[in-house]
Write a structure and sequence with these properties.
248 residues, alpha/beta, six-stranded mixed sheet, four-stranded antiparallel sheet, 10 strands, 34% helix, globular, disordered N terminus
Length: 248
């Protein structure tokens, strides 16, 4: 079994020459093409690009959900490139948080039980107080006993966010976290992410929404699996204009 080595670093995620190819021969698709990227610890980075640009694949590679065909991936100083399946599982349970567009809550469990699940999977006995504290932090202190079907989409996404944060992850990965929400619910989720980033949480978010991307500290643009541009501190109009330029 390969053991990951961790070194002190100011970088939350580092990719070096990372490539991912799907298929073989003439039909092969180079989804991510020799990407070098450093994402800062304590920063919120948005990843944007046209459909098929490789942004979700990049997120999955950075989070250890998929393995790169070549290159190296480091998360919070831990080189996970050659990590075994169990090491990656442990990493995802203890040092990484995930939020997806589809919420991925378990319908038979209450909000409190859904949030406690990562702690149980990591072998911890969750304290009710810590679970409820995280739910209260996302404005759902009065919904602890509600099941997903009893909550709105925005509330479900906030439960998913609480579930991702309960293990106090070093990096939070979010794949289109507002994609299934109306504008008011999306704004609430983005406000929560902004507050987390301001408190020092490292966040990497894939989005198609320039308004959502503008809430981040910086935006990375992909096209054909390659990084083609970078913006810091831009408003939604600047992000949309830059994205439109690369989509042409």
């Amino acid at each position: 079994m390969t053991t990951t080595t961790t070194v002190a670093t100011s970088t939350a995620v580092s990719l070096r020459g990372v490539t991912k190819v799907y298929g073989r021969g003439p039909a092969a698709v180079r989804a991510v093409d020799a990407v070098d990227l450093d994402l800062p610890r304590g920063g919120w980075t948005a990843v944007m690009g046209p459909s098929g640009s490789g942004k979700s694949t990049l997120l999955h590679l950075a989070a250890g959900l998929e393995r790169a065909d070549s290159g190296r991936v480091l998360i919070a100083g831990a080189d996970i490139t050659d990590a075994g399946d169990q090491e990656l599982t442990d990493l995802r349970r203890t040092r990484i948080g995930f939020v997806f567009q589809s919420f991925n809550l378990i319908g038979s469990l209450t909000a409190e039980q859904n949030v406690a699940l990562p702690l149980r999977l990591a072998g911890r006995r969750p304290r009710r107080s810590e679970v409820r504290e995280v739910l209260a932090s996302v404005g759902l202190g009065d919904r602890v006993r509600h099941r997903p079907r009893e909550m709105s989409g925005g509330q479900q996404q906030r439960v998913a966010l609480a579930r991702a944060m309960v293990t106090r992850p070093e990096v939070l990965f979010a794949d289109e976290p507002t994609g299934a929400l109306d504008s008011a619910a999306a704004r609430t989720v983005l406000d929560l992410l902004r507050a987390m980033a301001d408190a020092g949480q490292s966040i990497v978010m894939v989005t198609h929404d320039p308004g959502a991307a503008a809430r981040a500290d910086a935006v990375v643009f992909l096209r054909d699996g390659r990084i083609v541009d970078h913006l810091a501190g831009a408003d939604a109009h600047a992000v949309a204009d830059r994205l439109a330029g690369w989509e042409r």
